[in-house]
Amino acid sequence: MNLLRRALAAWRAAGAAIANAIADESQRTALGDVRFGTGVLVRGADRITAGRGVFIDHRAYLSAGMVGGKRGSIRIGDYVEIGPYCVLWGGGGIEIGNNVHMGAHVHVTSQQGRPGPSLQTDPSVPLPVDCAPVKIEDHVLIYSGAIVVPGVTIGHHAIVAAGSVVTNDIPPYALAAGAPARVVRENAIA
Fold first, then answer.
1. Per CATH, the architecture of 31-185 is what?
2. In the chain, domain spans
3. Which of 11, 43, 74, 98 has the highest local Cβ count within 10 Å?
């Protein structure tokens, strides 16, 4: 009997894995001509748009989920490369311009939780979530491990150094580095 239960549990797990794989593939297929590395997860593909020549590398995660009943979105321009293990949380809206490159493990979020009242004890009451759009303009380089938080705009031709945490707007052509990121050089491209 125990062997039968284990076999049945294994059969159910295999069925769930197949169903999940089919659902994941249908989400990716909804994005048209986007090229994908292996294991890319997409949630809310009906609210994600992507231009020509977009590549989303291995194990990246894109979610245009709902927050507080509002539908999120992610808009990706032409010739964008999203590196391996990147995470894009689009609950507050993410807009990525043309010719943007994100290195590995970049995290862009337009939604983040904040602490609730200290007297809150009811576990069924969720923590509040703040949403604000993120805009990444054309020709931006965001190097590996950077984090971009809600409400930030990164100007065209800007560079965000590896491991930086972008909490304020970055002007065009600037090089920003640090946690929190600060402009360390103007006209970084020149």
1. 3 Solenoid (2.160)
2. 31-185
3. 74
